Structures are given as structure tokens and as C-alpha cells.
Amino acid sequence: MVMHILILTGGDLDRVFARSYIQTQKFDKVIAADKGLFYAEQIGIRPDFILGDFDSCPRETVKKFEKENIMVLPREKDDTDTGIAMEQAVRMGADKVTVLGSTGTRLDHVLGNMGQLVYALKHGVEAYMVDSHNRIRAVDRPLCIDKNEQFGNYISLIPVGTVTGVTLHGFYYPLNDDTLLFHETWGISNELTEESGIVEMKTGTLLVVESRD
């Protein structure tokens, strides 16, 4: 049985989208990281585990949950609240993790959160960052994208460093045993032309971004 953990964290969150999306999924556990606790309260979710330094979460919200399973972190630390939440999800035995509230105006945090997708991948966990316009995951092996299940019409492949032997089947812009480099944009904004598309690679890690606009 797959354990699917939801992480709510403190970036931007479209509450209407979040409520709707959560209703379509089956989450076994919920982790709230810092302001993610405020979001959990707003959308009516009771977290199983709470952590953070709570510098961006209203004090009254923290007080309501102070008797729950809560880990208070120092403000000065080597990792972000989201990073520690992902580590906690791995420790809890997650097979799959979805992170809501992981995008927004702080691009440094957004990039750091993308790095957490790679961290999860290296620990054998399938992880996603999701907002109302995008779904992002990291892959290091062949991937099949079903047109009926894709999140958005546009699919971008962003290499984490260098990715070799990239071949695409069923895409508008084909690749055949090509090498993708981080400073090039060959993998941006592709589309499926078949009912499913296959992404193959020989070495490296790709961030796969499905976008609605």
C-alpha cells in the first residue's frame, strides 16, 4: 500500500484550488510546515505533524495547535522548514509526497523546494510540487505521461546539471539521444501529440514541469 503524505508549506497558496485538489487525492498523513499550519487551519485540515520556526505563521494559530505533535525549530538553522518537512516525510515512510504552498514570490525558496524533489527521488520517494498552474516532479528513469492524466498542456524538461541520452516519443518537438544542459532551453514548452508520451534518458535527473499556462 502506497503511503501518500501531503506537505503544506508557507509559499503562495490558492485556497480554492487547494481545497479542490485535496478532495481529488487520498492523503494518509499531513505535515504542516510553518505558515502551512495557517493554511491547514484555513482549509479545514488537521495536520498529523507540525514543524517550523513559525516566523511567518500567526501566533494565535500556533497557540491553537501547541498541544499537538509539534516540532519547534530555531530561526537560525541550516535547512528550510520545507526541507525539514520533506526529511520528516521520508522518515515517516512516505512512498509519495505532494507539496502545496511551495511556489510564490521567493524564487530562492522555489528553487530550494525543487531541490527537495531531487532529495526525495534519491530516497526512493515520488514527490511533486503542485500549485494552481503547475505540477513539478524529478525523474531519473524513463517516464510515461498519459494525456488523460497530465496536469497541463505544456510539458517542460529542465535538466539538473547534465542529462544524457534524452529521447522523446509522442511529443511535438522530438529529441533523439540528445544531451540536455541546464544553461540551454531545448526542453522548454513541449506538447504531447499522442495519447501518451515517453521520456527516456541514460544518465542524470530531469525536472518535469506540467503547466496550464
Can you describe this structure?
With 213 residues, the chain is of the alpha/beta class. The protein has 2 domains: 4-132, Thiamin pyrophosphokinase, catalytic domain (Rossmann fold, 3-Layer(aba) Sandwich); 139-211, Sandwich (Jelly Rolls), CATH 2.60.120. The protein contains 5 helices and 13 strands. The model has no long low-confidence stretch (mean pLDDT 94).
Question: How much helix is in the residues?
Answer: 10-25%
SS element count, helices = 5
| Low-confidence spans | none
Main β-sheet description: 9 strands, mixed
| Average pLDDT taken over every residue | 94
Radius of gyration: 18 Å
Could you say which overall geometry the principal axes of the C-alpha atoms support?
elongated
Strands, total number: 13
At CATH level 3, the topology of the largest domain is: Rossmann fold
Gap between N and C termini: 34 Å
Class based on secondary structure composition and strand pairing: alpha/beta
Q: What CATH architecture of the largest domain would you give?
A: 3-Layer(aba) Sandwich
CATH class of the largest domain: Alpha Beta
Proportion of residues in extended strands: 25-35%
* Strand arrangement in the largest pleated sheet: 4-3-2-1-5-6-7-13-9
Assigned CATH superfamily of the largest domain: Thiamin pyrophosphokinase, catalytic domain
H/E element sequence: EHEHEHEHEHEEEEEEEE
Count of folded domains? 2
Secondary-structure topology with pairs:
Elements: E1 4-8, H1 15-24, E2 29-33, H2 36-43, E3 49-52, H3 59-64, E4 70-72, H4 81-91, E5 96-100, H5 107-122, E6 126-130, E7 134-139, E8 143-146, E9 154-159, E10 162-169, E11 178-181, E12 196-200, E13 206-211
Parallel strand pairs: 1-2, 1-5, 2-3, 3-4, 5-6
Antiparallel strand pairs: 6-7, 7-13, 8-12, 9-13, 10-11, 10-12
Helix pairs in contact: 4-5
